[in-house]
Specification:
0% strand, 79% helix, mainly alpha, 249 residues
């Protein structure tokens, strides 16, 4: 079995395609990390908002109960409790506003992840194809002497056979193209071999780096990766921003 060459000996076109793939992979990872930070921020703010709202509701019920018992006499402690409740309500509103802002950031980052995810898939496909083309050209240009000799011999034998069967070409209905027979035989053999073949990844440093399978593209949306989908998504984000700016006034 042929062992692949070290990456330092790769064809420049292959090396360039792999470098491009690794760069896009790193770009997507950065975008994914930022997306996960936003998601974590949303989860934390949502949790804080729920805690503040629960605390405000509980303190409000207790304050009203005490107020009724005191017949309207408001102590300094009750004033402090009321101020704290109002502060919690304001905090809840601010957290709600922040959640809306983070939601817009999340939408934008999803568009970004989809764009970098598309570039990753394209660069992976290109790297794999460039490498495969180069390997096939190398394989076809070396070590085929025995096969070519055997094919030439088979063609000669088939030509003699055809001359006999067709009586020197007079019975054209029995004519068979020797090349067609040879290539069908080779094709059948090669297909069987490709079906049974399994890559030994321990001997495939380049394929290990590129990857046989499609790379993972977290937070990728095919819809958002398309031109029309991206335009619609940006328009939706803009509408959200306009609505948020109205609520701020």
């Amino acid at each position: 079995m042929k062992t692949t060459s070290p990456q330092s000996e790769l064809h420049p076109a292959v090396q360039q395609a792999i470098t491009r793939y690794l760069d896009t992979k790193q770009t997507l990872q950065g975008d994914v990390n930022k997306m996960e930070e936003i998601i974590a921020d949303i989860g934390r703010c949502q949790h804080q908002k729920e805690e503040v709202e629960t605390l405000s509701e509980q303190s409000g019920s207790q304050w009203r109960e005490t107020f009724l018992k005191m017949r309207g006499q408001v102590s300094a402690e009750m004033k402090e409790q009321q101020l704290q409740r109002m502060a919690n309500q304001e905090m809840s509103r601010e957290l709600g506003h922040l959640l809306l802002t983070l939601d817009i950031e999340k939408d934008r980052q999803e568009i970004t992840c989809s764009g970098s995810g598309k570039m990753l898939l394209e660069s992976h496909e290109n790297a794999l194809m460039v490498y495969a083309d180069n390997e096939l050209k190398q394989a076809l240009s070396t070590g085929l002497g025995a096969l070519i000799r055997a094919m030439s011999l088979k063609r000669t034998a088939l030509a003699y056979q055809q001359a006999t069967v067709t009586l020197g070409g007079r019975l054209s209905d029995y004519e068979v193209n020797p090349d067609t027979v040879i290539f069908e035989e080779i094709n059948k053999f090669l297909k069987g071999g490709m079906t049974r073949y399994a890559f030994d990844m321990a001997q495939e440093p380049v394929l290990t780096e590129i990857g046989i399978q499609r790379p993972q593209t977290k937070y990728f949306s095919a819809k958002l990766a398309s031109g029309g989908g991206r335009s619609m998504a940006f328009a939706a984000v803009k509408r959200k921003e306009e609505q948020l700016s109205v609520t701020e006034k």
